[in-house]
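Final report, results section. Input specification for complex C-07:
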Amino acid sequence: MENLKRIASYFGVRSSLLLITVVVAVYLVILIANMGGHMDKIRESQIREQVGLALQSPEFQQMPEAQRRQIYEQMVEVRRREEGLDKPFFQRSLRYLVNGITLNLGRSQRITSDTGSNQVRLILVERLPHTLLLWGTAQLLLFFISVFLALYLSRHYGSALDRIVVALAPTSAPPAWFYGIILILIFSSLLGLLPYGGFVDAPPPPTKLAYALSVLKHMVLPVLSVLIGGIFVSIYNWRTFFLIYSSEDYVEMARAKGLPPRTIERRYVLRPTVPPILTSFTLMLITVWMGGIITETVFSWPGLGRLLYQAVENADTPVMVGSSVVYGYLLAMSVLFLDLAYAVFDPRVRLGAAGGRRL
Amino acid sequence: MTLWMRLREVRRYPSALASLVIIGALVLMAVYAVIRIPYAEAIRLWRAGEVIWLDNPRNAAPKWVNWFGASQPETIILPGDKVRKEIESLGSGVRRETFYFSFDFLYGNFPSELAMFFNATYAKTPPQVNLLWRTPDGREIAIGSRTIKASDRYIISGDPVLQKRLGRSPEEGLFANPQAPEKTLKGRYTLVLEAYLFEEGAKIEPKLVVYGRVHGWAGTDHLRRDLTVALLWGAPIAMIFGIAAAVGISLAHFVISAIGAWFGGVVDLLIDRLTELRMILPLLPILIMVGVLWTRSIWVLLLVLIVFNLIGGVKTYRAMFLQAREAPYIEAARAYGAGNFRIVFRYLIPRMIPVLIPAFVLAIPNYVFLEASLAILGLGDPLLPTWGKVIFDAYSQGALYKGLYYWILEPAALLMLTGLGFSMLGFTLDRIFNPRLRTL
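Structure output:
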């Protein structure tokens, strides 16, 4: 009972701290995305232009100058009040913040969803599955291939394969999009085997199977570029990590006792490595949520990353802020989940005691 | 072992030597670029528009493609004062100047464009010119006549009338072999230009440019710019950006985590919160927003990058500093009464420098590629030519669709070399400075 209370209070404190962090982060994003209030001036001149265009009727043109001015200013004022532009930026930014934090994401200014809606929530929801599909596949493949291969290499350390992987580790310096462009050059342009980009053939194939195959075909190059961009350094890091853990004294001890290698690996090497593996798995999930802005742009993949870039390009503040809020929340949730997982898996972490700090 | 002795150990690793050669070559390239083409000149060459590159072909491949069996023509430029010229007076002040622009065309592929440029001086009546094309097999094709303004150009390959007459684009039709229209006819061509000058003091300076399909060692882009300018200047920018960002960020992380670990308590807690804040802040989106909404200057973006990284990412070193804090020599320092800052900056940080060096070198490629990443999103510096911007230009001009591979591959290869150079060195330094890895 005592223990449970401690856990509850610890997570209470942690989640409120994280919430504060999210609030600060979102506010910073709001400030930057609104150019510290400058974006509203742009919006206001847009309104003036629209009102001016709306007042092109002949009746209006025949009115005297003063009256025309007055009507024009009135209409602008109405529109300004509608959008809250009459209040100072600071006040408005706080309202944006509250709206953002409560996931009341509002309407976009230019970008629409495929169904034509300008609800930011709908736009995000529409893009999310694409991002999850691509980055889930790529990152899970990357993660599991590198962990298992690293484990294999740490067992056969010094072998030819091991040397090759170590030598290839520097190839991970370029990011995925860089390899993406090279892969497009080879497989799409030179060989004509795979599509240049996009999510599915146009027009989309009628049957479900053909549709899935077409999506699969479009996924090959992006997934491959993520793999090439990360695999060798990832294997190298895990390999070093496993090697360090398997040179611990207690592992030597187990060897001296004559335990079979499998048992040593399972009980003495892998068990203490669970928390770090978990950490990096969670951090990997975070990249899955956000996708890759540039890789998605290079491959014209209609995901969240590309959406964010389009939003910035179109100066569409609500979409920028909306996707940052969602990202912030997902990240905070992942961190919280990580804390919880540590508490379960790592006996060294004593909740509540000494502030429950992770090293 | 002193730092210097450890650094000298690099010699024992072949991959590190290779990386040093690469980095050395890049540094030489950067120095050469800066000396050969000063900063302002580089910007002028890259930004002044097509005017200064008029004699260059558009989207021309580099010269060395011809070593691999291609027979792409090079550009032939014939100014009027370098060719045979006949002057004949026709009375009452009227003069006929005949220029014979003769050149050997021995390439397998057609030129990309054909143009004449004129500078004419006259008071009232502009000169009149007739153009006649003589092929190696003796055929004569009338190209047409024109009135020449003070500064004029006549793009022969873009003349719709001539195209209609030849039945195909002029730069092909004029050079085609009548027996095999898909091939060029090799041999000596002559463009005969008859200029009629109607005034005593009138002058005409014609120039013929037969645009090739290859140019220089790097080729040209869609604006006829010589890519060597951008490829050369990319080197110093990539190095400065990469090294400045890596130095700034690694040092800051290092100092902040040392201070946090030493003081503990509130400072440490604050750093913890800031690290989390940095984790939640989407850095690349923010950089993109700053780039699109505020400024695209590469140096401002570098500053933003450093500032945002200052407040986070220090966790990596923290554990190490916490360990070092407990070392006996620190205790000794404390015992003789050393102040907090003395301990942090004189004892704690120097001891950890071996950890910093590899991390710092390994971070350089990340920032080199970050510059390229921003460029590929169209956020490259508006003035400076960089490798990333060349890739962006190529990508957005559809180089991949048009098969202009050199345009992407050249800057990509240089970026890749830079990335590989620094990261190979970093990996070796990591092994030297982290003894735990060395035994592995």
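Chain A touches chain B through 56 residues (CB under 8 Å). Residues 208-245 of chain A form the longest helix (38 residues). This concludes the modelling results for the funded period.
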